[in-house]
Amino acid sequence: QVQIVQSGAEVKKPGASVKISCKASGYSFSNFAIHWVRQAPGQRLEWMGGIYVGNGNTRYSEKFQGRLIINRDTPATTAYMDLSSLTSEDTAVYFCARAVRAFDETNPASDYWGQGTLLTVSS
Amino acid sequence: EIVLTQSPGTLSLSPGDRATLSCRASQSVASTSLAWYQQKPGQAPRLLIYGASTRATGIPDRFSGSGSGTDFILTISKLEPEDFAVYYCQHYGSSVVFGQGTKLEIK
Asked: CB–CB of B90 and A44 under 8 A?
């Protein structure tokens, strides 16, 4: 069965960086994209970016261009999100999710989600 | 950037009722690019519908999606107790955006 397991909660100071991992299992990792979505407390979902695992092509929301890097380790079936220059506004739950359609680089509709990783940015 | 506006903000209904949730786009979008999610407190979102009307695997057939252009609808034909949650629509095109959500609460 498909499982997506994320790394644990993080506490960071303003200006720091964070790297969150997303371990996938139960399907052909290379055939799907992984997308990252965050949700600040009481707020709507916000798409950050995604990576098509097969060729490593990435797509980022303009909002995060320059401080977000998404990559993957295919043999380890793990994707990573690296967010730098953190501020208190980055305090949120971060989710990774598998795209619903195989071989689709761009469609971020996602059917299997990680449990979420709480990032707290505070001095 | 396309803006998605969901209405109503809160919908109060009883189990067994029919729910109709709206998602309006600020400009016309492809039907293939609209998805709906359900989210319960403390949980990850659950994909219900993608391509405006295709149910995701394992989603009960009481959930249906429709619409085109700027107006999309999620219908829950007969509410079950577990359906009370927040619902989000998502558009994917040159950008990816979510609506602000509709909270479906028990009346």
From this structure: no
C-alpha distances (whole Å) from A51 to each of A98, A113, B31, B57, B92 are 10, 15, 23, 22, 15
- B90: Cβ–Cβ under 8 A, 6 or more apart, which residues? A45, A47, A108, A109, B4, B34, B35, B36, B37, B96, B97, B98, B99
DSSP character string of B25-41? EEEEE-GGGEEEEEE-T
pLDDT tens for chain B, 107 residues long, are: 899 999 999 999 999 999 999 999 999 998 889 999 999 999 999 999 999 999 999 999 999 999 999 999 999 999 999 999 999 999 998 889 999 999 999 99
The verdict on a CB contact (< 8 Å) between A37 and B45 is: yes
Over residues A45-61, the pLDDT tens digits come to 999 999 999 999 999 99
**B40, B47, B89, B95: best to mutate for the A interface, most A CBs within 10 A:** B47
Contact yes or no for B44 and A100 at CB 8 A: no
- With CB atoms and an 8 Å threshold, state whether B45 touches A111: no
Inform me whether the C-beta atom of residue B99 falls under 8 Å from chain A C-beta atoms: yes
CB A90 within 8 A of CB A29: no
B16: which 2 tokens? 């067994």
